[in-house]
């Protein structure tokens, strides 16, 4: 039987997520937990004092037992996980307050790959700007820019593809459709 060092796995996945978020648009790798990259991220982020919402088909029972995080609705959850990129779900999450911007939602969306709409990304963590492709629609980009237009309010968004790669967008990222 193969042993899993969950603490080591969480540290490595957390480092990958922070690298992806600090350099928006860059791609990092995630190691799976229970044969799932989404559950590995959930296990890295969740603990007893945070809440989450999940929309999809993964089995979160083991993550609930390990982390003791609170299952919540999409309007109050600290972390929102989804098996697809859902614009309506993205619109539902909280953006924090001016006094407590950390009380916002972080999104983790699964996707097939990172191909999609051609965009120019700029903002902190990017030397000027660069052009890339993101797995989101023009409507999602519009909502992302709107929700993140009043810093420090906003959301962080992660996309994880079928190849265990993760891409992050921070609330300071600016997206322009090409």
UniProtKB/TrEMBL annotation:
Q: Which InterPro entries match?
A: PhnH-like_sp, Phosphonate_metab_PhnH
Q: What is this protein's name?
A: Phosphonate C-P lyase system protein PhnH
| Domain of life where this protein originates | Bacteria
GO terms for biological process, alphabetical: organic phosphonate metabolic process
Q: Which Pfam families match?
A: PhnH
């Amino acid at each position: 039987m193969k042993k899993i060092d969950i603490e080591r796995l969480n540290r490595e996945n957390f480092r990958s997520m922070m690298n992806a978020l600090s350099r928006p648009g860059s791609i990092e790798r995630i190691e799976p937990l229970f044969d799932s990259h989404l559950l590995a991220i959930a296990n890295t982020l969740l603990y007893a004092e945070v809440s989450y919402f999940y929309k999809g088909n993964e089995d979160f029972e083991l993550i609930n037992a390990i982390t003791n995080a609170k299952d919540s609705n999409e309007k109050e959850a600290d972390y929102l996980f989804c098996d697809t990129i859902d614009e309506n779900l993205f619109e539902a999450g909280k953006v924090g307050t001016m006094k407590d911007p950390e009380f916002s939602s972080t999104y983790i969306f699964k996707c097939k790959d990172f191909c999609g709409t051609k965009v120019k990304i700029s903002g902190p963590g990017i030397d000027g700007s660069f052009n890339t492709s993101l797995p989101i629609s023009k409507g999602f980009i519009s909502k992302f820019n709107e929700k993140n237009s009043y810093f420090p309010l906003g959301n962080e968004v992660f996309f994880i593809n079928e190849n265990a790669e993760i891409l992050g967008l921070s609330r300071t990222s600016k997206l322009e459709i090409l």
